[in-house]
Amino acid sequence: MIIRENEPLAEYTTFGVGGPARYFAVAENEADVAETVALAAEYGLPLFVLGGGSNLLVPDEGFNGVVLLVWIRGMKDSAQNLPGVTTEEDGFFDAGAGEVWDDLVIEAVRAGCAGIECLAGIPGSVGGTPVQNVGAYGQEVSETIASVRAFDRQVGDFVELSNAECGFRYRESIFNTTERGRYIVTRVRFQLQPNGAPALKYADLQKRFGATSPGLLEVSAAVRQIRAAKGMLIDPGDPDSRSAGSFFKNPIVSLDVAARITSVPQWAAGEGKVKLPAAWLLEQAGFVKGYGSGPVRISSKHTLALTNHGGATFADVLAMQDEIVAGVFEKFGVKLEREPVVLA
Questions:
Q1: In the predicted structure, residue 188 carries a pLDDT above the cut 70
Q2: Hey, which of 54, 118, 168, 237 has its CA 20 to 30 A from 143?
Q3: Nearest one of 131, 73, 79 to 104, comparing CA atoms
Q4: Is 89's pLDDT higher than 80?
Q5: CB within 8 A of 204, min separation 6: which ones?
Q6: Helix 216-229 crosses helix 101-110 at what angle (to 10 degrees)?
Q7: Residue 325: other Cβ atoms inside 10 A
Q8: Strand, coil or helix: what is 42?
Q9: Which class is 2-70 in CATH?
Q10: Rounded distance, CA 44 to CA 23, Å?
């Protein structure tokens, strides 16, 4: 196991802000995970688990504890026979938490297995996807996760959690709500659909392909192109891609609240509730693409992404966040919620 002191954390996030970790541990296997948990407990230090850093904001003062980077790897398909991910005729894929998410998407598409093709190009690691119930362009990982293997800090051992036990909801799971901090994801098992058809629920994809019947490869490539056009594909030369992805969740409100907002698009979200598009609310409140003049601005390509145009601090991010939340609430009476996690 690798342990470093005063490790700068900004470079481990896609937004690129924040101070150092007092201690930084890299776990390459499950034994390393258990050892790091034990060491943090022995010395009374708080522990934070880091994945791909694509949905994380780090305070300027850093973190006075142990940051654990779960780097359990493994990629395989039935043809390559490499250790890690396994594919079977029934469409099961097992991936280490430290695997790059998009690499798994590429492997699944190459193997002709449907279910995550519309999640192509999303930055981050496999282990982070069940935590946030990552979703985009008509798909969510909860639709394909069969089980999650994790270290249970409460019982001090590794456990297997079924899909139902993960408590998936929109951008939520037990890992970031009721059991936050209890589990450390080490592997995820997905059940995909061999020879399945790609999902074409998203309007841009329907428009692009029309009446044709594209394959998984074509759809995943189209998703990457759409993400790139919105600055949501990591590109070192594009400041719009220095972000934490969509910064605000689409709010779920009562029918009464929605009825007070003229012409707002909406989707059913359970009995008596609807989901509203956060991007529409921002734009109607004056927070349009390219808004801002400081180091933190709204992306010029995607209304929901706040971006680091160089030299941004965590304080700058909070200032822009608070300005937008206040402005939308003043105009519509809807309080937006931040999607990225703050290291605390």
A1: yes
A2: 54
A3: 73
A4: no
A5: 137, 226
A6: 150
A7: 16
A8: helix
A9: alpha beta
A10: 13
Terminal Cα distance for the chain, rounded: 24
Sequence spans of domains, the chain:
2-70, 73-229, 239-342
In Å, the largest CA–CA distance within the chain is 62
Q: Can you give the pTM of this predicted structure?
A: 0.85
- 238 has a pLDDT exceeding 80: yes
Stretch 280-302: mean pLDDT: 96
C-alpha to C-alpha distance for 263 and 188, rounded to whole angstroms: 41
Instruction: Just list the catalytic residues.
Output: 171, 246, 339
Q: Percentage of the chain with pLDDT > 90?
A: 84
CATH class of the structural domain 239-342: alpha beta
Which tokens go with 43? 């010395």
List the alpha helices (DSSP H) in the chain.
30-42, 101-110, 129-132, 203-209, 216-229, 255-259, 278-284, 314-332
Structure tokens given for 316: 């700058």
**267 class by beta-carbon count within 10 Å (0-12 exposed, 13-18 middle, 19+ buried):** exposed
- What is the CATH code for 73-229? 3.30.465.10
| Residues 341/172, Cβ–Cβ less than 8 Å | no
The torsion angles phi and psi of 137, rounded to 5 degrees, stand at 50, 40
Instruction: Tell me the Ramachandran region of residue 39: left when phi exceeds 0, alpha when psi lies from -120 to 50, beta otherwise.
Output: alpha
Give Rg (Cα) of the chain. 20
Q: Poorest-confidence range of 11-15, 37-41, 79-83, 263-267?
A: 79-83
